[in-house]
Design goal:
With 920 residues, this protein is α/β, with parallel strands linked by helices. The protein has 31 helices and 36 strands. The longest helix is centred in the middle third of the chain and has 37 residues. It is elongated and about 125 Å long.
Length: 920
């Protein structure tokens, strides 16, 4: 009985949601719109989709209703023709319609929206090429032959306006607009009168009059008229500037007022105007010493104004305490920026409309929440427009300082409560790492409109205002976005040093740590040597060798560290990008050598403690030696030495080896051969394989060089740790004296043998032999190429667990460079929380640091693997840690991780690991 009740409830709920979904879908209404070719109102984009003012407007209406729109292209020559489609029911909507039709010729009634969708006007228009006709030059307009339709002549207010400008008696009448346009094109008339919606790119406006409102029209019987009308009203209330912004976007030339006759003549005779501005007011205006040009937001906006007016501006620095004094200099035409609401200067100078709008921002200490009217506010004396605004709009106690640094220091020291400046300047100031403890706040929303000041010249003022108005909001945003992006090169040398103070401290700490580690190692070894010296002469020799190694290690560590620090300082101070790249290459090379030293020490430590374990697997024999050959031939070119290989006695099979340690043996010996060979000589590497039973093979390897060779005496101790023979080559070649020791121990662990034949100045031959298990290669599998397509990583989502900011930044840069999306968790608890809150498929892989606060990486991994998340068992987890010992790798694998990557991370290894894990 119980199960039946549950089943009935389930079915009821399912039916409810099914009905609800159907109801939501059926509630969508689609209305058919008459789509006709009207430039920028109804148009098609490059993909063939409908676009334009009308389409954007209807899309916005859809957001306030369940009405959607579909478009039907109609070829018509008049509104009367279009209205017939509305009458017949083939269309639901036509727009824009200016004059109420009320009823058609057949008596059908139409409904207009109560709110308009566009405001237009009538205008007198002429050809753009008519250079003798100017905006509102009514003397010239009165002498024109002007075309007008009989219908337009009857519009309200038309006759009275035409009488006022004395063109009433000289009109030429036509039946429709197309006839008017044809007469203009054929020069039968000088101009025409029509709605500005008929303005085309080859025409210009001579006067504007008779504002007209345009509406959406439907049949009165359409049941969705009320819904559409309501949605339009709600849109107007919610977005009061939507219609104006849309008009500026699609019809900017209809919003702005053209230049008049006197303005055009003025600019024609004044092609270049001199503008006084600040040379050190980033990002508003500043002089760039590299390009020897003025730059900044105000400069770029002025260049747009200049382009709009067809003139040029010549910029130079304000060199007076009061910027308005520059206008007393006959060389100065314009001063900027100035506070345009400054009434006290309007009597003496003309002020333009605002060129750039921002607000007063206050730079204050981070813990400063608010202040009263008696607050002490710092301003920079020479940036007077900020001072003028603060004085007019607030009652604060103003304290003037000579520079931005002085004002910021006053805030830091508590001498003032805040430093007032414009929004964009405030953001630029806080880019400096010196002021990272300061904050930007906007307490009182004081507007800071800044514009231009000029002598009492109304013609220039009018022209500049029109040029400023022609700068679109999109252009303004683009300029502001471009000029408020701050690059490393924009910082001063002091700021650059300051910003790297943490890194420099980290490097010094690492140097000290390395030195302490080496010193501790020295002390331990000295104790061991002291004990061995008491037992035998051989121990005494070993002690001397160890002491010599430690001295050499000190030199070897200092050498790359000196290169790293030196190249970092050179690169930091250089402005040449090629020089920076060269410095980075040197830093990477020195860092790799330092890593080699550390790795050799770690390997030697493992050998001494018997902690090296071989991780054997079957690999393709020819691909294995081929990859080593390819790498070493590239190395050989760096030494100007040729590497010759002979694998004719070798063949392809699956061989069971530890690929990492076997590669270490070959690379170590061949690299030594390359380093100790003369330039222009060659090194030979021969490989052979001989079957010694079923699935068993004898591997024979010979590596021969013709370099400096080794003495008999040194050959006796060449496998002893830290031993090196000194000659003209070894003084030039870097090394730790551990390479052959490590090689010998690895060969012994593999059950092989290594022999050396060498004569001074004739060369050296190393012979390595060992036996290995093999398998035949499955040809079908062999033909499958390993996927290394990095496109696999594109768009994959990575959850990165890393508590070190620098390591996290490096990892994120690498991953994002390969198209991956990265989310950063700063500790083990955060990575667990983020993953357990995630939905299926939100993350594709987790990169897990091991040593982290709150929860370490292994604890976090165990919690994730044991959680109820549906992907917990399958999501790949990769350890990224400085823990490099074999037992560390075992622990991460036991915790549930899939791979173990050792820091510093090899980018190629990281990417190949990600590809292998994500391509499953």
């Amino acid at each position: 009985m119980y199960s039946i009740i549950v089943l009935m409830m389930f079915l009821g709920i399912s039916l409810f949601y099914s009905d609800t979904a159907s109801a939501d879908e059926s509630s969508i209404v689609k209305l058919k719109v008459g789509f006709y070719q009207l430039d920028n109102f109804f148009d098609y984009d490059s993909s063939g989709n409908e676009c334009g003012y009308g389409v954007d407007y209807l899309n916005e209406i859809s957001k306030f209703s369940s009405i959607h729109f579909e478009y039907s292209y109609i070829r018509v020559r008049s509104w009367e023709d279009l209205s017939k489609f509305l009458e017949s029911g083939k269309l639901d909507i036509i727009m824009p319609v200016s004059e109420p039709l009320k009823t058609s010729s057949t008596g059908s009634h139409f409904s207009y929206t109560t709110e308009d969708i566009m405001t237009t006007y009538h205008s007198i228009m002429t050809k753009k090429k008519r250079g003798d006709l100017f905006y509102e030059d009514y003397d010239s307009i009165g002498k024109m032959k002007i075309a007008i339709t009989k219908e337009a002549f009857e519009y309200t207010g038309m006759k009275s306006y035409l009488k006022s400008i004395k063109v009433y008696d000289d009109l030429i009448y036509f039946d429709n607009y197309n006839e008017c346009k044809e007469a203009l094109d054929e020069d039968k008339v000088d101009g025409l009168i029509s709605n500005v919606m008929d303005l085309t790119s080859d025409m210009k406006i001579l006067s504007k009059f008779s504002v007209t409102h345009n509406y959406i029209v439907m049949k009165e019987i359409n049941p969705y008229y009320k819904d559409l009308n309501k949605a339009l009203t709600e849109l107007k209330l919610a977005e009061p500037t939507f219609q104006t912004d849309l008009t500026k976007k699609y019809f900017p030339e209809r919003v702005y007022t053209p230049l008049g006759k006197y303005e055009i003549n003025y600019l024609k005779h004044n092609k270049t105007l001199n503008v006084a501005t600040y040379a050190d007011y980033r990002p508003i205006s500043y002089y760039d010493k590299k390009s020897h040009k003025y730059k900044g937001i105000a400069i770029d906006l002025m260049d747009e104004v200049a382009e709009n007016l067809g003139i040029k501006f010549n910029y130079f620095s304000i060199d007076t305490e009061n910027p308005y004094d520059m206008l007393e200099n006959t060389k100065t035409d314009i001063v900027m920026p100035v506070y345009v609401d400054n009434v006290m200067f309007y009597k003496k100078y003309f002020m333009t409309k605002s060129l750039l709008n921002s607000n007063i921002n206050y730079i204050t200490r981070s813990n400063h929440s608010e202040f009263g009217s008696s607050a002490r506010i710092a301003v920079v004396k020479k940036y007077k427009y900020v001072y003028d605004c603060i004085m007019k709009k607030t009652e604060y106690n103003i304290i003037e300082y000579n520079s931005v640094d002085d004002a910021c220091d006053a805030v830091n020291d508590g001498a003032v409560d805040a430093f007032a400046t414009g929004t964009y300047v405030a953001k630029a100031i806080l880019q400096s790492p010196r002021y990272k403890q300061l904050d930007i706040k906007e307490f009182d929303e004081v507007a800071l409109p800044c514009g231009l000041a000029i002598h009492n010249d109304s013609i220039l003022e009018s022209a500049l205002n029109k040029g400023i108005k022609l700068v679109t909001e999109e252009e303004r945003r683009s300029i502001i976005n471009k000029d408020t992006v701050y690059n490393w090169s924009d910082l001063s040398l002091y700021d650059k040093f300051y910003s790297y103070s943490d890194i420099i401290a980290f490097i010094l700490l690492m140097v000290i740590f390395t030195w302490v580690a080496v010193s501790m190692y020295i002390n331990n070894k000295k104790k061991m040597i002291a004990q061995i010296q008491q037992k035998s002469d051989e121990a005494i020799k070993a002690s001397r060798a160890k002491t010599d190694f430690l001295s050499r290690m000190s030199h070897e560590i200092r050498t790359p560290m000196n290169a790293i620090l030196g190249m970092a300082e050179i690169g930091q101070s250089s402005t040449d990008i090629n020089k920076k790249d060269e410095c980075i290459d040197q830093i990477v090379e020195s860092g790799n050598f330092l890593l080699q030293i550390i790795n050799d020490i770690l390997d030697m430590n493992k050998i001494e403690q018997n902690k090296i374990e071989l991780n054997e697997e079957y690999v393709d024999s020819m691909k294995f030696v081929g990859s080593i050959e390819q790498m070493l031939k590239a190395n050989a070119k760096n030494y100007d030495v040729e590497l010759r290989t002979d694998f004719s006695r070798y063949r392809s099979f699956l061989i069971k080896i530890d690929p990492v340690r076997t590669k270490q043996i070959y690379v170590n010996i061949i690299n030594n051969a390359l380093k100790f060979s003369d330039k222009g000589s060659f090194v030979e590497w021969n490989m052979g394989a001989e079957d010694i039973g079923e699935n068993h093979v004898h591997i024979h390897c010979e590596i021969k060089d013709y370099g400096c060779g080794m003495s008999k005496e040194f050959q006796k101790k060449m496998f002893v740790p830290f031993e090196q023979e000194y000659n003209e080559f070894t003084n030039k070649v870097q090394g730790t004296g551990l390479g052959l020791t490590i090689v010998k121990n690895l060969v012994d662990m593999m059950g092989g043998t290594i022999e050396c034949q060498s004569e001074p100045m004739k060369g050296t031959t190393f012979i390595i032999d060992f036996e290995r298990d093999i398998q035949n290669i499955d040809e079908e599998k062999d033909n499958l190429e390993e996927k290394t397509d990095e496109s696999i990583l594109e768009g994959k989502n990575v959850l990165l667990a890393e508590d070190n900011d620098i390591n996290a930044a490096v990892a994120m840069e690498i991953l994002k460079a390969h198209g991956m999306n990265v989310e950063w968790a700063k500790d083990g608890q955060e990575v667990v929380d983020k993953y357990l809150r995630s939905v299926k498929g939100e993350y594709d892989i987790i990169l897990m640091d091991v040593r982290m606060p709150k929860l370490d990486g292994m604890q976090a991994t165990k919690i994730i693997r044991n959680s109820s998340h549906e992907e917990a068992k399958d999501i790949p987890i990769v350890a990224m840690t400085a823990d490099a010992f074999d037992e560390d790798i075992k622990r991460t694998m036991q915790a549930g991780m899939n791979e173990h990557l050792t820091k510093p991370i090899d980018i190629k290894v990281l990417i190949s690991t990600l590809i292998s894990l994500l391509d499953k």
